[in-house]
Amino acid sequence: MAGGNHSRAGEEKASSRGQSDVNKKLKYISLAVLVVQNASLILSIRYVRTLPGDRFFATSAVVMAEVLKVSTCVIIILLQKRFSVKETALFLFDSIVCQYKDTLKLAVPSLIYTLQNNLQYIAISNLPAATFQVTYQLKILTTALFSVLMLRKSLSRVQWVSLLLLFAGVAIVQVQQEGNKEKSVSDSSNQNYMVGLVAVVISCLSSGFAGVYFEKILKGSSASVWVRNVQLGIFGTVLGLLGMWWNDGAAIMERGFLFGYTSMVWCVIFNQAFGGLLVAVVVKYADNILKGFATSFSIIVSTVASIYLFGFHVDLMFTAGAGLVIGAVYMYSLPKAPAGGSSSPSSSSSSSASLASPRTDVGAEMEAFLPKCAGKQKGS
Hints:
It is found in: Golgi apparatus membrane. The chain has one domain. Helix content is about 80%, strand content about 0%. It has helices spanning about 1-50, 60-80, 85-100, 100-105, 105-125, 130-135, 140-150, 155-180, 185, 195-220, 225-255, 265-285, 290-310, 315-335, 345-355, 360-365, 370-380. Mean pLDDT is about 75; it is low at about 180-185 and about 340-380.
């Protein structure tokens, strides 16, 4: 009997060690992929928006990304229902149609996310990729401020210091860029640095507000992350279609919805649509501090790539500003000290949610609620 128990304990220990090794590999693989995804999205959008020739409609790309997000979440729900189409359809009908009041709450963040996705295309089309990547980290500041105002969250001293460093770093980068703009931006008639800067600032403000609003809705809800993303995607698709009709309706009627689409454009759309799902994997197998490192490293990767791809010039001021931003991203992701009061899981994870790639703000926020939803399902 004792020998059998000893053998069983040994098998469980070996199994646990094997699972730990698998999770460790998945952690570093997912982090590496996140770095590539963050950097490649910015670089690829910058590339396709500055190519000569026919330019695709950014509004149609936003709509297509929303459709892909909804499709992906529906497939995941279908997997959860063990490929039962009837059960999945009834579940979605009850969650979206029968509980329409709950669904309507998602109209506000969906509108903001749709606006934000369009603004990102405008910003990246008019700013150097590295400058956009650094400046876009201001969404950490806006998310923190809205969290304090709307959710009454408290920030540690380290986090407040990191926000000041973040603001200082972005300010240095912008002063440097204003005095020494990239030639391709200043010389090109269809690119405007100030338009790009205004677009990225508004995008950061909208990202912060929408993320905190989305968190506030989900805090008192038992709906799964995938259902919420389907609801967001439905509104996003409808609002995106309205924006497309308003802004490019006549041109799209003349040239077609997929005008200017190339294989590279499709890669950008898929990257933007599925980036948020990648963040969920990172949070599941890694942690928030490592994800902060991944975000910081992606800034370095996109800067180095911009030097070779777009002739971007890096001087001492840009290096200093980017260094402050990277340090601030890491400091903000640090957990609060036990002496100052432990932070709630939702607070710590929602803070890190703002570090995700610009492409994937809807998916980025869902990471804050994945562990919570998983815990509820396990207990139910």
